[in-house]
Amino acid sequence: MYLYDEFDERLVRERVAQFASQVERRLSGALTEDEFRPLRLKNGLYLQLHSYMLRIAIPYGALNARQLRRLAHIADVHDRGYGHFTTRTNLQFHWAKLKDVPSVLGLLADVGMHCIQTSGNCIRNVTADPFAGVAFDEIEDPRPVAELIRQWSSLHPEFEWLARKFKIAVSGAAQDRTVMKSHDLGVRIVRDAASGAIGYRILVGGGLGRSPMEAQVLRDFLPREDLLAFLEAALRVYNLAGRRDNKWKARIKFLVLDIGVEVFRARVEEEFARIDKTKANANPAEEARIASFFASPPYESLPEISRSLEQAVARDEELARFVGNNLTRHKRKGYAALTISLKAIGGIAGDISSGQMRAVADLAELYSFDEARVTYAQNLVLPHVRLDDVPLIFARLKEQGLATANVGLITDIISCPGLDYCALATARSIPIAQALSQKFADPARQKDIGELSIKISGCVNACGHHHVGAIGILGLEKKGAESYQITLGGEAGDDYALGELLGPGLPAEKVPEAVERLVAVYLARREAGENFIETTRRLGLAPFKTAFKEIADAVA
Amino acid sequence: MLLLDRHGPKEDVWERAETLCQAETNFVLTPFGAIAESPLVQTDLRLAALLEPNRALDEVTPFFDRLDMIVVHFPSAADGRGFSTARQLRQAGFKGILRAFGPLISDQFPQALACGFDEVEIIGAAAARQPVEHWMEALKRISFLYQRDYGAQDSIPEQRLARAAHV
Ligand code: HEM
Ligand code: SF4
Fold first, then answer.
1. Whether pTM exceeds 0.90
2. Cβ of A350 less than 6 Å from ligand 2
3. Domains along the sequence of chain B with CATH
4. Which residues from B are below 8 Å from A when comparing CB atoms?
5. Minimal CA–CA distance to A276: which of B93, B57, B119, B64?
6. Which domains are seen in chain A, by residue range?
7. What is the ipTM of this complex?
């Protein structure tokens, strides 16, 4: 894992002092509220429905035990004993007190963390594959590039006042696990077929929100040494030409749509040609320094199969389910990446208590080379556990209410905070997720239904990724009441697709029944080995619409 | 009005005129459009152009030789286009004075300098609310940047490199 040197630490501490001065200048009247607001946001501090919210960056989702324990401490002392992981692998404290914020930022700086650029119209926290460095299908570990981008984008003098937020994701595997095509810019590590050289495919113009768009290829193959100069060129073109007159048309996706990807590409290439690459690009020695932090940990040589795990699984049905759902294949024999679901039945997606944070910290330290990861699906990962240790880890997780065996299943629901917290919400999303989770709680039923992603947002901003859920749920307000639109067929990965609307909005209490009907269509019509999304693709919308209509008509 | 460079406040010697023929002194600041439209008459005239943020670089480069100063307008503090405009002007070889002009906030002073500006001119209430000390203090808040190519020779990557060479 990357560890701060004195320069990183100094920058973060100076930024804390700078923010303290900004607060002071706001209080003295030197800055107006309009001037202060973007400064507050660029330091991760939101004003929500009931209080302030502090958003902490977890760059590319990587955490160590010390950081987790510090987050637990902050939750206990400065918040209400828990935190919330988001779909951009940040952690939010929803009950922050303004007067505590400077000390919280100081506590974070102690452990190499910060809230820099977790909001505001700037380059946001960079995300990456949660299985980086361990995935069996990896071309190259994306974390060194992600860390390089984190540093390059932090306090960038030219790009702190963009037209709108700018989100970057990095992936280095054959399969995309970052929802890359929903990002303003995607960096995909690829191998050039002809030369065998490793470089980047750059995607641009993705985004969710009220006008979802799929990212398109900006550069098919970028030599690795040119990355920062190319990013500079792309950001400059956007900074100059992105719309400033309408906040809702200001993301880069609208610029790409307006002028077309070809014109956008031509402008970026023209700018790229003008940039002095020797100065703009990273120095190879610095790249090597960063990469050295991500060397493989000292794995043991283990047999491919763990006898002790096999025996334990044979004895314990619950453990068997956990192993079936929550383990991901590791590039090393005898190891697995273990996903800790933060989707307990009836719980709040992404929420984690301070006690659970400490427990995960202990497990990471003891069994996973002091590493944990956050996923965009609002779960955690212990990236390198020995198969032999899984029964023990499972037992410890179970004590903490963290052993839910539902990763990728129908109750592994992504949900934004919605009207329970968020000032922009038009409907609640947490209670919908809870009701669905309870409805489908039965493990045998979940297993039968198989892989199915439900994603819920409390307004058109789409923080809960509803557009790319196999079943997407969007909470709106209609004549003073909550109304939920349901979409079908969305996909987040390489087969990226936006879900299609099934019909009119439903009241909250009808949503579980509607989902059940959709699932019933799948169960009745699936072919052998076909999962939910595959069936929807084969059958199209029609049979699902028919089933949905029965519910919608009953309501109307 | 407040005019500052990295050393502190300074006097403004430039006379503002809507067109070149209105000018009474030899230091004239006029909208870029007025310069682009008028032929060069007086050789001893020192010219500065006020540039709107949406002006394309290609329109401006032919006038580099005639311009002693380019003033880039920031319509609001949150509108960061001017930072990229400055970078492009420097990249294209403009060697004269670059001034950022608008209701900036003091925290943007170091950013403006890093992007190639020499000075900032703050107008209206923003100038009244933010005394000179705020601007000078802002320059000292962040010691080093990660970006290698934004003015300073002591960027974090350069310092890391120098250090590695020593051990
Ligand atoms: C609670 C306070 C929050 C506020 C005020 C907020 C605000 C917004 C807004 C305004 C947008 C739309 C931006 C646009 O389309 O230009 C957005 C998008 C987004 N937010 Fe949030 N959000 C909040 C919480 C969250 C949470 C909890 C998550 C994760 C669960 C999240 C993740 C995202 C993501 C992934 C997008 C992506 C949409 C895109 O890229 O177009 N946000 N948010
Ligand atoms: S989707 Fe809407 S309700 Fe949900 S967190 Fe985002 S802004 Fe808030």
1. yes
2. no
3. 2-165 (3.20.20)
4. 53, 77-81, 83-85, 87-88, 91-92, 105-108, 110-111, 114-115, 126, 129-131, 134, 137, 141-150, 156-157, 159-161, 164
5. B93
6. 6-110 (3.90.480.20), 134-292 (3.30.413.10), 307-399 (3.90.480.20), 414-555 (3.30.413.10)
7. 0.96
